[in-house]
Amino acid sequence: MVNRRMKPILLVMAFFLGLIAFGNRASAAEPNYVISTDATYAPFDFQDKNNQYIGIDQDILKEVAKRNHFTYTLKPMAFNSAAQMVANGQADGIIAGMAITDERKQVYDVSDPYYNTGVAWITKKGSKLTSLSDLKGKTVALKSGTAAANYGLSLQSKYGFKVKYFNDTDTMYNDVVNGNSAATFEDMPVIQYAIKNGLKLQVQNANDLGNAGAYGFFVKKGQNPQLIKAFNSTLKEMKADGSYQKIVNKYLKSDQKTFTGSASDNDSTWGILKSNKKSIWNGLVETIKLTIFAIILASLWGLILGVMGVSQSKFLRGLSTTIIYTFRGLPLMVLAFFIYIGLPGVLHTKVPAFTAGLLTLILNEGAYTGAFVRGGFEAVNVGQMEAARSLGLPYGKAMAKVIVPQGLKIMVPSFVNQFIITLKDTSILSAIGILELTQTGTLIVARNSQGFRVWAIVGVIYLILITLLTWLSNWLEKRLN
């Protein structure tokens, strides 16, 4: 027979497992492949002005799917996370301007090369640096996991520069534009696209490019051989019938405004808002959904942890302390990566991004909530419990009728603060590909290179949301007191 005090814990555990199981059944019902990508790598992978995923990679992938009669679900996220999704079985394949290397062949099966590229070194526009020797003692920015980064790193000892890494292209570019780094290394078509969009960088020695190798389509080693076969056969057909070259020319030779919008769309805050209103709205809705669900469920989980923390049972008190200590000690991004990328490799089951993000917030925010809930209950004068017990109330009823109502009033300011933190923490989940407000901003910047304006817009939206949430929380606080 299950102890009554254990029932809340078992119910919560069942809920968490149910979230994973439900998400897994939902994804399993989709009769298509899951393909991950880095959608911030124009002109290979990015969003156009209509918020559709396009680029050399994406157009090739669409043609492969069309000619081989399959559908796919695209999962855009940071490059390293996108690669890990395939390695851990969360995705069936990845196409993201990913260079073919011997090390990657140990983990993945790879298609025939579909694009050969060269690496340029880039400085701020107007820079006096003219040769790689001028980089001695200076800092070079690199995007982790890319062929361009590997090429740049291979030159480090020869030319004596320092290196720092970034997870996304736009931040790396702007680090050079702002003078924090002296230079960067990048694939030539990628940097050409960015410069055409107005990024204030310049290519040094464009006629002397480093060899970065070739790009390929990757699947987990030993799995989905039919995808590799379909990709290779279609690529061969496309090169023979000219459709491959049409795709390449479309992005490397066309006017880039075809994809980014007119000057008025990108050169003013209002223009950016107007041309991206749909994607910004969708990102805002996703952020609000995550925040509402996380606030409700993390608060319930925190209340359970808090009640366990003041229980008469040593086991429950110890369990509460352990859970709170563990999940308060884990950085939110590490926890998100563990649930979304690490856990599926052990459980051999897929965890949808939204489910992983929600679980991350529940466990992390719930641990903080549990800590102040426990403190709130302990702050109630011990005489209140003694008086209730002396009147014949059992411990459980004394807690529910006397301690909890008084403790909750003490905790209201802490709840308000935690609600605001939860809203802000949703932005971290962009790292696992959830298309909330921050990830939406990243995709827009990758397309139009207007980092200052886009992040100003996103910042103002967050500020408005936090202000509204604060007003609501303060109103509730006054009603309860």
From TrEMBL:
Subcellular location: Cell membrane
Membrane topology: Multi-pass membrane protein
Residues spanning the signal sequence: 1-28
Entry's Gene Ontology BP terms: amino acid transport
Pfam family for this entry, one: SBP_bac_3
Keywords carried by this UniProt record: Cell membrane, Membrane, Signal, Transmembrane, Transmembrane helix, Transport
Transmembrane segment boundaries: 290-310, 322-343, 452-472
Descriptive protein name: Glutamine-binding protein/glutamine transport system permease
